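quick one before i forget lol
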Amino acid sequence: MTITAAADGSALGNPGPAGWAWYIDENQWRAGGWQRATNNQGELMAVIDLLEATSHRADEPLLVLCDSQYVINAVTQWMPGWKRRGWRKADGKPVLNRELLEMLDRALAGRQVRFEWVKGHAGHPLNEAADLRARSAAEAFQRGLAPDTGPAIVGAAPSPAASSAQAVAPPTLF
């Protein structure tokens, strides 16, 4: 059976306090964030953590509902070229968010994952739930509080990427 989840990021200011979240249902979701990051970093981290959280079910197809064209295009179009060029864009400049993109590439290895674009803030129930949790995480960081990280998934190991990402923003932030 296909696992269907929405993944979303949020930044208050861009960069600013940022959050990320993925959502399957009320009993299976996770969120986190940073004191200072970008929306794109949150979008990437949401997908990375989702892939890690579902790794114990890697034999099941995964449908990721995402309102980020950046994430979808990075995975479905740009990443092969970036990797061939040593993580450089066509113009020779370094790819932004390289560490997160490399984590995403590793997490995708051997998985059957399909990305589907959904319009953000348009009432899609799973996307709205992920957006709410990502925004709440960003707001918690803005107030200097720990975000509600959610229940995760039954049987999933703690996400090493999420644990390290909570401590500091990705090194290529600026």
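fyi Confidence is low (pLDDT under 50) at residues 167-171.
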